[in-house]
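In this section we walk through a basic example: taking a raw amino acid sequence and producing a predicted 3D structure, encoded as discrete structure tokens. The instruction is simple. Fold the sequence below.
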Amino acid sequence: MRTLKKLIENNRNWAAKIKSVEPNFFQNLSQQQSPEYLWIGCSDSRVPANEIVGLMPGELFVHRNVANIVVHTDLNCLSVIQYAVEVLKVKHIVVCGHYGCGGVQAAFKNLKLGLIDNWLRHTQDIMQKHNNILAKISDEDSRLNRLCELNVIEQVVNVSETTIVQQAWDKGQNLSVHGWVYGLHDGFLNDLNICITNNDELPDIYRSALSTLENIKRK
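The resulting token sequence is shown next.
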């Protein structure tokens, strides 16, 4: 098939539905975007960013990659963060992972999948860093879910330590970085109690988030 007719039809129906409720929606949307939120999430097709937080197009700026990883050599991710912070002036950056993440699972089980193994090495580093926390959990699925949570916490720190976010805070820009995990099994977001609003509070909130996570019992 050279065309995806069903998807085009779905698009027409979707656009018609929105215009029936708000006739000028697309005209207004085309003029500018002014989201308050940057979402850094996983590429997993089961985690649709706008839908799970109930926001319309134009309300959420989105970057997604396998296992929602933020590293300081990823110019794609850094470019998104810079545009969101410096041009769009977002007020919140949300790093959102999800339980049962295939990327985190591949890192957890040390699967050999090819090129992506190099990317997931970042999550394996997190697994080794927090082995003392993970080793206390006997059930493998629960241990994997804890690694998904730890991965998000570490990415929140990475976002907070980018020169982009650091400079924004130095200038007094109102900007918060949050860490959440999404449950595929129930559709609920879980706040990991890590929200960084300036550089000075980063170490204490990071330690507190890890301590809270460690005290949440898993089998």
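Looking at the output, two observations stand out. The chain has a mean pLDDT of 95. The chain is about 50% helix and 15% strand. In the next section we compare this with other chains.
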